[in-house]
Design brief:
The structure is a single chain. The mean pLDDT is 84. The protein has 4 helices and 2 strands; from the N terminus they run αββααα. 67% of the residues lie in helices and 7% in strands. With 84 residues, it is mainly alpha-helical. 0% of the residues are buried.
Length: 84
């Protein structure tokens, strides 16, 4: 997991600055901020609703519990370090 995080971090720094882009909106060039926020909120909501539905399915609920048991298997500081 740490190796994968290192690869992603290296790729992020090696790619350099990203072009933010512009959208022509009512004759003015603007950055598409609202689009990104809207898509993020919709996808976040879809994951939350999917999680709530998955908890109600008995077979899937058991698999979810097995995966979440790994969060208790190790020192909390190491899990937080890997996650961040």
């Amino acid at each position: 997991t740490l190796a994968l995080a290192g690869v992603w971090a290296f790729g992020a720094f090696a790619s350099g600055p990203l072009h933010m882009g512009h959208v022509c909106f009512f004759g003015r060039n603007q950055r598409p901020v609202i689009t990104g926020i809207s898509v993020g909120l919709v996808l976040g909501g879809a994951f939350v609703i999917g999680g709530l539905v998955a908890r109600r399915i008995p077979g899937v609920n058991d698999y979810i519990k097995q995966v979440l048991e790994y969060s208790n298997a190790g020192p909390l500081y190491l899990i937080v370090f890997i996650t961040v």
